[in-house]
Amino acid sequence: MNRRSTKREARRRQLLDAAMAIVVDDGLDSLTVAGIAKRLDAAVGSLYRYFPGKDALIVGLQERAIRDFHDFLDARLDATRDALGEEAATPMGRILAVLVAFSAYLEDCAVDPSRHRLLDAFLSSPSAVLPDEHARAVDQVLEPLLAAIAGLINVAVTAGVLSPGDSRVRTYVAWAAVHGLDHLRKRDRILASELRVPHLFDETFAALLHGWGAPSEVVSAAIARRATLDLALVTRPATEV
Predict the structure, then answer these.
(1) Please, which of 76, 94, 106, 109 could form a disulfide with 156 given CB 3.0 to 4.6 Å?
(2) pTM of the predicted protein model
(3) Boundaries of CATH 1.10.10.60 in the chain?
């Protein structure tokens, strides 16, 4: 990357940082190019060279949020493999990798609440945040993330832990379940422990994995092991997770 490109990319990051600050302070509906210009004490016209409008800003924010979450997921999986050692290649380890991949989305709310709100707005909100053309652009960034998760399911199939099936469809089914669980968390404070999201996550994925052919004892072992790993991994500083 030449000096001019580096400078342009730095300015683009600065604009996205300012946009994120507005979203955090006032919500996505309050985001405007004029608002960013005011926050940065810049001319409105100069910003259109980087983002031609609000939709482009939202695309930039969501693409960055997805890429950052993908990095977090990769680090989470690496930490899990390191903790398991040789067990990572066992049937329990293969199923645990799938569990960690989906539970990472729920953990992300605590790791980076602002990023999580952006992901939720694009992925879970019943209202369309972007026109179709821009939504497809964001989806191109999301697809590698979902493909990576589907790859973990394929590994479990190849290892004989799961029965053959469409890993992409399975990923979307589980992804939808996680988003539903994410929205239920606001009720955890008034519900009995067996109805709270941590328990519902285990029950949901036990049912899914059993349906996909995983032996009950392997699923139970993976769920139990994930519970012991969480304390060690989640308590690390966010930069290490």
Answers:
(1) 94
(2) 0.88
(3) 1-52
